[in-house]
Specification:
The protein has helices at about 15-30, 40-50, 65-80, 100-130, 150-170, 190-195, 215-225, and strands at about 10, 30-35, 55-60, 85, 130-135, 175-180, 205, 235-240, 245-250, 255, 260. The chain is of the alpha/beta class and about 260 residues long. It has a single domain, classed as 3-Layer(aba) Sandwich (Rossmann fold), CATH 3.40.50. Helix 4 links the parallel strand 4 (about 85) and strand 5 (about 130-135). Helix 3 runs parallel beside helix 4 and helix 4 (about 100-130) packs parallel to helix 5. The protein is globular and about 50 Å long.
């Protein structure tokens, strides 16, 4: 079992979904965790459930001052910052031609700028400590596209690109930076956001199911730990085989009229 004994991790978007699963698993594997989220009540509850090895910090990832408050509290409370999991994200489902700029920029500010600010904020602490691990949650949409997810896809491609540049710039300091690309994960965000009102569910991935949040958390633990000490600047897929090839559902033909049904 991969361990994180003594590591101090900031996990954004940790009040629910994938982030919550990651916070719980990190503590189980020996880490101390800053549960960072804009959802105060939910985040406080997650941190409380994890005991003395976790604290909650309110954080709007799109605000530089919020990041400074977060890293200062992490360092003061736990003594160091060894791991950053840039997990916070939002989704909006609309065709490119009809999406208002305000909606588009909201995704950019949270998904893309938030990731950028987080990396900037932790690097001084990691340099001083002689190294660290940053894991940026991109998406399968950082490697391919999906109709009506243009803004979300753009931000996730940006996260993927920033990860590679960060790995090149900070490798000399012992700081590793990788991106994780989940497919559909069984969370509220996936159920209500990624699908959209007019989504079609005729496409199946080879494993025929959504991922469990704990399956993504296992990958995060690996990348945060010394077990991945020679991994940096890389993309780690957890997509159920999505990019191996998807299969259209077979629809029976109506022999009376020769049309699909």
């Amino acid at each position: 079992m991969t361990r994180l004994d003594g590591a101090v991790a900031i996990i954004t978007g940790a009040a629910r979904g994938q982030g919550e699963a990651q916070a719980k698993m990190f503590v189980e594997r020996g880490a101390k965790v800053v549960v960072a989220d804009i959802l105060d009540a939910e985040g406080e509850q997650v941190a409380k459930s994890l005991g003395d090895d976790a604290i909650f910090q309110h954080l709007d990832v799109s605000e530089p001052d919020g990041w400074q408050a977060c890293v200062s509290r992490a360092s003061e409370h736990f003594g160091s910052i060894d791991v950053l999991i840039n997990n916070a994200a939002i989704i909006d489902h609309a065709p490119l031609e009809s999406m208002e700029l305000e909606r588009y920029m909201r995704l950019v500010n949270v998904n893309q700028v938030g990731c950028f600010l987080g990396m900037q904020a932790v690097v001084p602490f990691m340099r001083e400590a002689g190294g660290g691990s940053i894991v940026n949650t991109s998406s399968i949409m950082g490697l391919t596209g999906l109709r009506s997810l243009g803004a979300y896809t753009a931000t996730k491609f940006a996260v993927r690109g920033m990860t590679k540049v960060a790995a090149m710039e900070w490798g000399r300091y012992g700081i590793r930076v990788n991106s994780v690309h989940p497919g559909f994960v069984d969370t509220e965000m996936a159920k209500t956001g990624a699908a959209g009102d007019d989504a079609e569910h005729d496409i199946l991935v080879p494993l025929r199911r959504m991922a469990r949040p704990e399956e993504i958390a296992e990958l995060m633990v690996f990348l945060a730990s010394p077990a991945s000490s020679y991994c940096t600047g890389s993309e780690f897929l957890a997509d159920g085989g999505w990019l191996a090839g998807v299969e259209p559902a077979i629809r029976k033909r109506d022999t009376r009229g020769g049309t699909p049904r």
